[in-house]
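Folds abound. Consider this:
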Amino acid sequence: MRPLLLIILLLSAGKLSAQISLVKDINDQSDPDNSTALFYKTSAGGKIYFHAGVNDRSGIGVSDGTAQGTHVIYKVSVMSWSASTYFVAVGNTVYFTGQDNVNGAELWKTDGTDEGTVLVKDIVPGFYSGYPTSFTNVNGTLYFTAQTYEYGIELWKTDGTEEGTVLVKDIVPGYSSSGPSGLTNVNGTLFFRAGTPATGDELWKSDGTEAGTVLVKDILPGSGTSIPESLTNVNGVLYFSANAGGKGTELWKSDGTEAGTIQVKDIFSGADGSYPYELTVLNGNLYFRALSSPNVIGLWKSDGTESGTIAIKERDDADIHFLHRVGNAIYFISDGELWKSDGTPAGTVMVKEKIANDDGIAFSSFAASDNTLYFVVNDGTHGYELWKSDGTNAGTKLVKDILAGAESGASGEIAILNNNAYFTGYTPTLGEELWGSNGTEEGTALVKDLSLTKTYASSPHEFVSLNGIVYFVASDPDHGAELWKSDGTDQGTTLVKDIEPGVTGSQPIYLTAFNNAFYFFAETSTYGRELWESDGTAEGTTMVKDLVEGAGTNYPLELIVGDNILYFTTLAGSARELWKSDGTAAGTQTVATLGDADGDFYINAPLFNNGKIYMVASTEDEGKELWISDGTETGTKLLKDIEVGNRDSYIYNFASAQNTVYFLASPTNGEAGLWKTDGSTEGTALVKSTDAGNIEGLHAFNNNLFFRFHVSDEYNLWKTDGTQAGTVMIKTLASTDEVVLFSREVLLHDLFYFIAYDYNGGITLWKSNGTEAQTLPVKHIDLGSGYHYVQKIFIVDDILYFFIQDLTGFSQLWKSDGTEAGTVFVEDGVNVSSDVYVLDKMAFFQADEWNGDYELWKADFNVVTGVEESLEHTLTIYPNPSSRVLSVKMKNGSPIYSISIYDSKGGLVEQRSAPSDIEDAFDIHIETYRSGSYIVMVKSAKGIYRARFIKK
């Protein structure tokens, strides 16, 4: 379901544009946690592929081993539902499970470029997932398993096209699953394990057709399961472990026929089984780990015959782990020691004694490159670091101690590309990034820092204004969360007062403008959390009153202004007290105790209307119900017990129109729906029941209340004047293709505007005067398929502005004058993450650049109309159109920080940081771009600029 946002306003003609820029990096302390999260590193198709989590974004990391050839494709995130397969190459195409903002976890493919990274098929349409996994290449056809509502988890295949991605066979008809696993290619035949109610989990094979997908053998006859595992191809014969009953789990082989599927040897006589695993192939023989008796574990090999299945090395004092083929030997770990074997008892020798004390924890990953084994291990002295072995004691050593001492500098999977090992390296300065090694200390280095260098976030919030200055709460490393102010410039953004010295700060909340000052609650070690006031100066920022003597806190909630009085509540024992204040200590007094001393209390979204406060409070006898107060003790009372007795009425979402207060209530046994009150018990009544649907989004407009009423798949716009006759539907806004939700009202004259979404990612701006005939779409905004949503809506000089978060994760600023032609894109470049506070012709908000560094930003509307007009004095791009190289230059000499290229639908094509020594133009090679229109966004020391160019 996608929401629809409502905003009520009047739009008039006007010409404003906006320049988005950082006001100040308040918290400029370097954040060491600026790592790139690297997972599922795999060498495929001549490149290293991996999941890359860069700051707050994720995508596919691609590397050829060089910094220039290492980048992240952000259009899709890598998902994995199997520990064994992440990226699988079929020719030059790499397949993986990915998820974007449109679809769930589905089958994707990539050639390592943004343009070549595409969805193969949305197996389960929409946001739901097909969860493809167990990818296996069989002669150019990719086999995998996927889950659908119609077939359950079954076997699928693809030729790389949508139409060629099909179910092979519904082995267990209907939604029930056969759950194929262990997919293995044996000379063009796919073997796998699958289960049916009749046979249990047994060995199957497939030639890619429904008829050719058959059970090989019911090894454990009947509904019991033999659990075939570790399927391995050895010279065209399938080897695996299975339990036929009576002999335990032993080694089996199959030529694809029932008669040719036999147990190789009963290694551990009796019902216990030898549990062969880590099946590894060397020179036509199979090597594996197995038990021959309860306490004896050994390295075994088999030529496929009973007599040729023998123990090479057995130990009764240690286990055997991590079998890997390296050159012409099998390497393994036993009791923290590195061993190797040429397949003979005499040739099975210890390479290095006691590298680590714990096999299972100390060793984390292995990969072989020709005759060298790379592995990550914690030897107890250096932490987890990269090691290598050439099969000799002297040649088994630490490659590089990236993080000196006992701390760890290496982790994650090791991927081999061109005989180099790639892994996750860690330093305190860069965090986790992609590293590479040629096996030497000097040849072990960072490949590329994919993360964006960032500082800690100051997270500005709680905006309020006074005398042309905006005030807010922000954190820095010296003061913690304290009160700040800004005039929209770096120099004019300063700390107001360090109320609680130290790194914790006073953490002000509920900033509220009142009587030429603003009020808030702040916490100090001396007084606890109390009421404060400020005129914007350090001297004028003082505590109003110590409500609870000493350092104890009274947990204040809300600050509401009504009839020149501030109202709030505090905790008093197990109940709450309602307070009022005129801004002085003497005028700050208790009004009444809300609820019994021993009773529960709850207050939510109180509202002041016509001299009264409406709120939710609780007593033992009535539960959570509607209360009212006129600011006196006798005038503070229960207004109506909607859910009679001590059960709650679940009242929420107060709104007022004229002298009527509306709210929603959901009593268990009472009348649920839209209610109204005039402040009297008799005048508190149900307006519209929700028995047939759901009411949301209450907004006052022209003495009426507008709301959304959702019935089945219809989303209707309604209004009410508080009477049954005056409660009517305005228009059915949407059915199954759109969802309606109202929020963020702004009243301006006689029109209200709202946003509607469709499932294709489109956004439509609507307007209405409250009649069906004049409820009309203004403009449909198509940003391409995907999940786009309107984040914030606000008004500047009677022009509607709104932020839309696009698929790149950035917020696009749009504006509208109420016409289709006047609804246009303005600016982009940051991720807006807070409410927008408008002061004159500037809008302040918290934002980051998808690096987690949330700071104070602004949109300045005191600029020349149109991006192109303002750019002619600042930014030059040439030639335009261009076919090979695009040059970008700032005319005002402002240093360029980074350049981002977006396609016409807002998709990120390329993002590059500018070299620190750049003195003239920044050249971007665009030879590989498709022909069409693009947007270049330049981040410089003086702001964010953008322009269009054409790729010929």
